[in-house]
Every structure is written in structure tokens, then in C-alpha cells.
Amino acid sequence: MIDRFATTVTRERGEEARLTKLLGDGFMLVYPEPAPAVEAMLRIMATMHSTDQPAVHASVHHGAVVPWEGDYFGTSVNLAARLLAFADGDELLATAQVVERCPGFAWERVGNRRMRGVSGAVEVFRLGQCPQLRAEGRQPSSARK
Known about the structure:
Blueprint: H1 2-12, E1 18-22, E2 27-30, H2 34-48, E3 57-60, E4 66-68, E5 71-73, H3 75-84, E6 91-95, H4 96-101, E7 107-113, E8 122-127, H5 131-134, H6 141-144
Parallel strand pairs: 3-6
Antiparallel strand pairs: 1-2, 4-5, 6-8, 7-8
């Protein structure tokens, strides 16, 4: 499974992406702007979507980062990681900063979430029913709760 996932991420991440970390069964990708990140995550989720594969979840945040020796650090990186913890399978979550820069997508407001290391609540959005799931009549697991 991890080989298929790694191959899919490598193939579908797009030219703009920098693969910065392998995190066990996950990847940290960095993009100059959020739209190519959202598009890449949709491609990755669609490719991985299968009844015999675990569901993929993703998060996207846009903000300043600190580059250092091929890696990225800072509050924006931490916020994206914390946001991922809220995402269910077949779900992409994003912050208001992403939604503002990606108006062509069907975003649904989830609400405000408190996250460790972030002052104040973070407004969270879910990408509306993912295209690969719409074709099958499925919804992200959080929409079924």
C-alpha cells in the first residue's frame, strides 16, 4: 500500500511541489501557492480511491515558512499538521487563507477549531464532496456522521 501511495504522490504532486518530508505513511509537500496544492491533493485522492485501499486525507494552509537545509519550519507548517489531525478519510481540510486564494472550489465552512501552538481559533473549511466520490455517490466520512 505504501509503495502505491508513494508512487501516486510522486506522480500526481505536480511540478510546483517540493517533497520535503516522508512521515511514515504520509508526505509533506510545499507549494508556492495553494491552488496547485489543492489540485494535486484531489488528483492523489482520486488515484488512491479504491475499496481495497485506505482513504487518503489532506490539509492545506497558506502562510510564511522558514526554509532550512531543504526542510520547512514555522507556525504555518505546524498549523497544517494540526489541521490534518481533524481530516477524515477522503477529506481535504483548509484554512481561510487557502479558501481566499482558491475561490473556484466548493468549500464548506466546518467551524472554528482551537489548535495547540496557535493563538486564537482557526477557521476550518472542507472541500465539498470530492469529485472522485461524487461519481460513486459516496461522501467523505465526516459528512456521513
